[in-house]
Amino acid sequence: MSGVFRSTNFCIGAVLTGSLFLLMLLSFFYLPYDPGAMDLQLILAPPSGAHLLGTDHFGRDLLSRLMVGGQVAFAVGFFTVLFGLLVGLLLGSFSGYFGGWVDVVLMKVIDAQMAFPGVLLALMLIAVFGTGMRNTILALGIMSVPRFTRIIRAGYIKHRDDAFIQAARLRGAGPLRIMYRHILPNLVNPIAVTIATSFAGAVLSEAGLSYLGLGVQAPNPSWGRMLNEAQGYIFTQPLYAVIPGVVLTLLVLGFHLMADGVRIRAESEP
Length: 270
Hints:
With 270 residues, this protein is an all-alpha fold. The chain has a single domain (2-27, 54-268), classed as MetI-like fold, CATH 1.10.3720. It has ten helices and no strands. Helix 2 (62-98) packs across helix 8 (188-211), helix 5 packs antiparallel against helix 8 and helix 8 (188-211) runs parallel beside helix 9 (223-230). The longest helix has 37 residues, at 62-98.
């Protein structure tokens, strides 16, 4: 993994995501304005010294709402990936290492879930659990489990009969020690790629659900919800719609560039 920092793709992606992450962190300590505060005298105001990105159709400061919307994007991405990784690691490691009926049963369940289109599955889960940030994370987390499970399972199948694993067994190492002490470190690269792409997918999916009114609910800022609110004002206040879309694109692009950087470096390693 150390050589990944010499990858141009990874460095560009890290700069993009790191910059937006710092902007999100700043929002916990400083905001130009209350993101929910309305000023009806400044409706759809253009950028100015007081409002660097202008205001929306309620006179709310766009920069402040954009910064708080970053909290939503990173929180949804982080907890979605955490859920998918933990569940996928548990299922994938047991399925790949032990094989047999355990593998057959788990893969049947995973295949059944993957048979559903991702967006349709998310809509079904939100219909059951309800809207809101917590339920959005739960729905997207469940959607991310098959991806992690398959990647991790493939890695365990690849390494479970390697010479160093056979040597560990001869030394008396138990299954859990072999699974998580000896095999898991060899899966860092594919897991890192999956984390990055899953994070980007979760951010994009949350924005899509919020755009449809099924994700984060008003008055909480979300980049997807900001796009929904701005669609009727794209000609009168273009930045209202353009800025959330650009920031969302840069964040997703950044994570995919980092994933490409890790993948390319991993493929070049002997």
